[in-house]
């Protein structure tokens, strides 16, 4: 088993398959993002090898992220092989939904039913303002099709003061209409420009806003990263992720591998390990796992401790893997 020095066992891998995206959300990447050359990315074969190794040492869940995963050619064939890996109990995907509709039947066939959909507005105008692309209708269509095809859907909204706090209740109302979970995420400093973000809307502010519409809001137990709520007014549920406040770090059981093949212990850590060079140098499976375990022992107790080690602007979310 892979464990850190705080005896937290690693069971969850977030794997970014690309840094590219068909949107340009203001909190995630600059408009003129410089993407890495395709030959610098981990190949799907290399990813499958790494997941297989990690599965042998306790990893049970893999979440595919980006960038936008579906812009990378060959993703579906990769997913077909990924779900076959012994020990992997669950594969999930985070997507912006723009290209999702055409792949839903194949995902259903493969057995991948857990989809997190990024959606930061309920109107075309506000969606364009945040994403800088005119794809709102495609995303809403994908959402409706997922519900119709009985996917397990979580909709994620990044809460940004002065941009979309007025969308909290309208988006929460989606969980009235659909059996989905709508989650609100504290904004983080991963836009590729610097560390400063609006910090006034934390999880307590979001919770208070939700209570204006859902006066019987009740928090449920059992989630490690999100505060999950129910209400008699809901068909689904609501959630809040304290991504900036970082109340969930103590139970962290995850690793991240970026599309460049860099292993990171934390979303807030800047100093990762170049796994790509390790596997491309001809290292044996045992040597690869040894390197991973050595890096894991550098994992800090919390994201605040990781952030203290940083000496420059944080990378964009699309490069790290959202």
TrEMBL record:
One of its GO terms (biological process) is Mo-molybdopterin cofactor biosynthetic process. This is GTP 3',8-cyclase. Keywords: 4Fe-4S, GTP-binding, Iron, Iron-sulfur, Lyase, Metal-binding, Molybdenum cofactor biosynthesis, Nucleotide-binding, S-adenosyl-L-methionine. It catalyses: GTP + AH2 + S-adenosyl-L-methionine = (8S)-3',8-cyclo-7,8-dihydroguanosine 5'-triphosphate + 5'-deoxyadenosine + L-methionine + A + H(+). The gene is moaA. Its cofactor is [4Fe-4S] cluster. Pfam families: Mob_synth_C, Radical_SAM. It comes from the Bacteria. Gene3D superfamilies: Aldolase class I. Residues 5-227 form the Radical SAM core domain. The keyword Zinc does not apply. Its EC number is 4.1.99.22. It comes from Flammeovirga aprica JL-4. The keyword Nucleotide-binding applies.
